[in-house]
């Protein structure tokens, strides 16, 4: 009986230690809410598993594009993948999809000396299939604009004394809306000239 109690205690401690190492960051909608936003750069100084949740305006008439950048110290690992998640619930408790996304090295200058960067962007052809599309359209994620987009990345503790990330998040109108916006802009230009 003592052996079972001891084993159970060790398992509970290990589980709690694993939970304590993860960090969860939620970026809630701005007030007033916007379909486009830039987050960061944000500096983290601890934890190995990082879960970043970005709230959006739930909207089936738009689709989601995003860009994620992350920097680690030059002595840190080469980051090759992260997981991305779309969720349609208010508390991001029921993901529609959780999928791996490849990261590639950034060529732009890092925000601090001694760092190297990695990124993924659904605005570029290498990742465009990971963005969402309107319901009923062909694509991997026909859900429109989800309520939450989350980014999950694991950096080994030995390299994680500094971690910097930034996110650009855009909810794009469907083409008919874009045409109406364009026509409205032309009408304003024409009216101003008259």
Can you describe what's shown?
- By secondary structure, the chain is an alpha+beta fold.
- The protein has helices at 2-21, 175-193; strands at residues 22-27, 36-44, 49-55, 62-73, 81-87, 95-102, 104-105, 115-121, 148-154, 163-173.
- It has one domain (23-185): Sandwich (Jelly Rolls), CATH 2.60.120.
- It contains two helices and ten strands, in the order H-E-E-E-E-E-E-E-E-E-E-H.
- The strands form two sheets. It has a five-stranded mixed β-sheet with strand order 1-3-9-5-6. A five-stranded antiparallel β-sheet has the order 2-10-4-8-7.
Which labels suit this protein?
194 residues, alpha+beta, Jelly Rolls, five-stranded mixed beta sheet, five-stranded antiparallel beta sheet, 2 helices, 10 strands, disordered N terminus
What is this entry, summarized?
This protein is an alpha+beta fold and 194 residues long. It contains two helices and ten strands.
Strand content: 35-45%
What is the β-strand count? 10
Helix tally equals: 2
Structure class? alpha+beta
Strand order of the largest sheet: 1-3-9-5-6
In N-to-C order, the SSE pattern is: HEEEEEEEEEEH
């Amino acid at each position: 009986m003592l052996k079972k109690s001891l084993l159970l205690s060790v398992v509970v401690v290990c589980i709690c230690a694993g939970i304590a190492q993860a960090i969860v960051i939620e970026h809630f909608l701005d007030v007033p809410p916007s379909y486009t936003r830039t987050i960061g750069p944000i500096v983290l100084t601890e934890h190995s598993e990082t879960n970043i949740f970005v709230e959006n305006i739930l909207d089936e008439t738009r689709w989601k594009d995003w860009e994620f950048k992350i920097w680690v110290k030059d002595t840190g690992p080469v980051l090759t993948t992260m997981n991305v998640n779309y969720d349609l619930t208010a508390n991001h408790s029921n993901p529609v999809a959780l999928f791996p996304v490849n990261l590639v090295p950034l060529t732009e200058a890092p925000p601090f000396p001694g760092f190297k960067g990695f990124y993924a962007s659904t605005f570029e052809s290498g990742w465009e299939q990971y963005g969402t599309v309107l319901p009923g359209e062909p694509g991997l994620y026909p859900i429109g604009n989800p309520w939450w987009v989350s980014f999950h990345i694991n950096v080994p503790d030995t390299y994680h004394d500094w971690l910097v990330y930034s996110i650009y998040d855009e909810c794009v109108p469907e083409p008919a809306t874009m045409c109406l916006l364009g026509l409205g802009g032309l009408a304003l230009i024409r009216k101003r000239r008259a």
